[in-house]
Specification:
The chain has nine helices and 14 strands. The protein is of the alpha/beta class and about 325 residues long. A hairpin with a 4-residue loop joins strand 9 and strand 10.
Length: about 325
């Protein structure tokens, strides 16, 4: 059994660059090959990231015997076919979020992985950061009482629309698929439940995709979640977990830094009608978490532990299917599906 994964990357966009840098910093992986539609693009990417093999096509990456894990960083509509192709070639697959364009597609991908005896995981990299783990432990320990509300935001404003796959409806673009999926994933992770009702409202860009979405989720425990996501609006991009006895504020939940990733446990001032003789807890306590490694390196090492050691996947089959079922319904409501 090898001690490291040999990675092949499909695609050379921004997210592929971030992942390649992460693998170069991780402990249990090495970059072996990269494929792009244009050989010159693959060559340039390989030089930058010290990758020994560059191919002007994706099939050659799958045929490379040194590759035993594939990172799929392609547009959303290509996740399904190229994951299936990688599995058929005997490779494990770490596929960018959202794993597929629908829960039905994802189910096909997981079934194919079972037949091939290989792993497929959706690349929600924030799940690998110890900041996420620390917050999850606090919630589970009851540090803020019963979770009542989760509020998340993931927005950015881009002026690059022409040629941007996020604004292409034929590529399953839109802000829900791009960054709203993080908000849904986080709310489900924190509550530990699947929502029993979901609702969304959207602004549709002239390109035909959702560029701003607000949504709500209701869980069987009574907890609620709200989220905002957008590609044409600026926001604070924080996460708040609000409980009966306090709340947790996570300023950078989606891409926490390698060092000094922060979260704050806070308690509001009790209302006047409450018993004034009960001492109030400290209003705010901020904590820092050091990861010791690039976020994408953590993700690569987590995936290697699953592929090589049999450790549970950070994002398992039912987790991904649950997220995609919510996305399916929200996209149906806003007319994007």
């Amino acid at each position: 059994m090898p001690s490291q994964l040999g990675w092949g990357i499909l695609g050379t966009g921004n997210i592929a660059r971030q992942f390649a840098a992460g693998v170069n910093a991780c402990h249990r992986g090495q970059l072996v090959a990269v494929g792009s539609r244009q050989r010159a693009t693959a060559d340039a990417f390989a030089r930058t990231h010290k990758i020994p093999a560059a191919y002007g096509g994706y099939e050659d990456v799958l045929r490379d015997p040194r590759v035993n894990a594939i990172y799929v960083s392609l547009p959303n509509t290509l996740h399904h076919p190229w994951t299936l192709a990688a599995l058929a070639a005997g490779k494990h697959v770490l596929c960018e979020k959202p794993l597929a364009c629908s829960a039905a597609q994802a189910q096909e991908m997981f079934d194919a992985a079972d037949r091939a005896g290989r792993l497929v995981m959706e690349a929600f990299m924030y799940r690998s950061h110890p900041l996420t783990h620390a917050v999850g432990r606090l919630v589970a320990a009851g540090a803020i009482g019963q979770v009542r509300l989760v509020r998340t935001s993931f927005c950015y404003r881009t002026t690059k629309v022409a040629g941007n796959i996020r604004f292409a409806s034929e590529l399953a673009g839109g802000t829900l698929m791009d960054v709203g999926c993080y908000c849904i994933s986080y709310s489900r992770l924190i509550t530990g439940e699947e929502p029993i009702a979901v609702h969304a409202q959207a602004h549709i860009h002239e390109a035909g995709v959702d560029d701003i979405v607000v949504g709500t989720l209701r869980f069987g425990s009574g907890a609620l979640a709200s989220f905002t996501c957008g590609m044409s609006v600026q926001a604070d991009n924080t996460a708040y977990i609000c409980g009966s006895d306090g709340y947790i504020e996570v300023p950078v939940p989606w891409k926490p830094p390698a060092t000094a990733a922060r979260y704050t446990v806070a308690h509001s001032t009790p209302p006047r009608m409450d018993n004034p003789s009960v001492p109030a807890p400290p209003p705010r306590q901020t904590h820092e978490v050091d990861a010791g490694m690039d976020l994408y390196g953590l993700e690569a090492d987590d995936f290697a532990a699953s592929a090589l050691d049999g450790s549970p996947l950070r994002v398992g089959r039912q987790d991904t299917l649950g997220n995609l079922r919510v996305l399916d319904e929200l996209r149906r409501q806003i007319g994007a599906a």
